[in-house]
Amino acid sequence: MPLRSKELSPIELKRLVEPGRYAVGGVAGLYLVVKPTGAKSWVFRYALPITRTSSTGRPFAARRDAGLGAYPDVTLAQAREKARALREQIASGVDPVQARREARAARAAAEAKALTFDEAARKLLAAKTREFRNPKHALQWSATLNAYASPVLGALPVDAIELAHVVEALSRDDLWTTKPETASRVRGRIEAVLNWATASGHRSGDNPARWRGNLDAVLPKPTRLKRVRHHKALPIPEMHDFMMALRQREGMAARALEFLILTAARSGEVRGATWAEIDLQARTWTIPADRMKAGREHVVPLCDDAIRLLKALPQHEGCDLVFASPRLGQLSDMSISAVLRRMKVDAVPHGFRSTFRDWCSEFTSYPHEVAEMALAHTIPNAVERAYRRGDLLTKRRRLMEDWAKLLNAPHGAAEVLPIRREGGAKI
Questions:
Q1: PROSITE patterns per the record (predicted)?
Q2: Per the omega criterion (within 30 degrees of 0), is the bond before 237 cis?
Q3: Half-sphere exposure of residue 13, counting CA atoms within 13 Å on the CB side?
Q4: Is residue 62 over pLDDT 50?
Q5: Which of 182-186, 259-263, 350-354 has the highest mean pLDDT?
Q6: Which CATH number fits domain 10-50+61-112: 3.30.160.390, 3.30.70.20, 3.90.350.10, 1.10.3720.10?
């Protein structure tokens, strides 16, 4: 046990200016340390109850110093009180210094784990950016989470998020019942963020955003709520007259719409088309994977009318876009829709894909998979997809030529077109 030292008074403490360690008394092991700079601090020195053996074989008690704060911020009375508290810990078998280290480590671990949902979402997006088909997809993720998830979940630590929080986020402003498709996407993205948080060690347990065996017990199925809204499309018998009227229209947006119809492509694919993707000699348009909805390269066979349209278009130096706006930028989706509005046609650009698909089914004998591949639809059946590795380009080329004939011939919709072999003979 340390020797008892004379109890120093507050005035005597002030007089200690020489660098060194001074026992202040009152509690064994309590010292005032004066540094060469003149700064003073409290130290409590104690011996652990566990003894060790030195190299000479003599047992000794391991000693440690515990800081109690700076003087005079911590007064003499406060220092003695702190020292007595540490004495009680030691008597109960607790090492004060080790206990402090463990407490600091626990706090650091808790702080590291206490990641908010918004922070977790940002980290997930940063890690997954390369997986997205294009930057727009990443922006959609961020925008939907900010709009629908963040108001409820954003500031919550990910390890504190429970089923009730997720339900509140999905039910806010009647999102789940009024916008089931959007709500379903938001739910999936919340689930992905929480999965990332679990895998990264920031939370544990079940994912409260999981649908099967979880949310499906408290929320109605999206398929029961979804209202199918078909894109407005022109009936097949009206396509010839419409195309004749469209070809009388001037402007790049009208030409883009005509090309869209001839190729049965999506608006974004047409508006983003570049001359580098066009091979006039091979009569193909190859759309790269990063511009396709399915994320796979798609080759479009170009019919005679599409080739003539392309050859008549101007090409601008420094701009590779096929359908460039007056400022040599990409046409907006609204500019193509505006053509239909000015023509007073009750349809939308995407609706022409529906017209094309109806014509394939009702007025031709082309196989289902040929029409689906012409529309760049993904084959849902994994087995069929594995066996059908080709792109059916030859058959699709004949299909698109027959589609162009339908557009050019009045009342041609009533004619059923049989599929033909390579040599031209009917099957």
A1: TYR_RECOMBINASE
A2: no
A3: 23
A4: yes
A5: 259-263
A6: 3.30.160.390
| 3-state class (DSSP) for residue 133 | coil
- Strand, coil or helix: what is 320? coil
Does CATH place domain 236-414 in 3.20.20.140? no
Between 42 and 56, the more confident residue is: 42
Three-class HEC string of 196-264: HHHHCCCCCCCCCCCCCCCHHHCCCCHHHHCCCCCCCCCCHHHHHHHHHHHHCCCCHHHHHHHHHHHHC
Q: Hey, what CATH topology would domain 117-225 get?
A: DNA polymerase; domain 1 (1.10.150)
The per-residue pLDDT of the chain, averaged, comes to 83
Could you state, in order of their start, the residue ranges of all structural domains in the chain?
A: 10-50+61-112, 117-225, 236-414
C-alpha Rg value of the chain to the nearest Å: 38
Per-residue confidence (pLDDT) for residue 54, from 0 to 100:
52
Q: Look at residue 114 and tell me whether its pLDDT is greater than 80.
A: no
Residue 124, CA distances (Å) to 2, 121, 164, 211 in order: 57, 5, 23, 20
C-alpha 66/C-alpha 85 separation (Å) is 12
At 160, the amino acid letter reads A
* For residue 273, pLDDT beyond 90: yes
Percentage helix, strand, coil for the chain under 3-state DSSP, each rounded to 5: 50, 15, 35
Please tell me the predicted confidence (pLDDT) of residue 147. Answer: 87
Residue the block writes with tokens 């009533």: 414
pLDDT of the residue at 129: 75
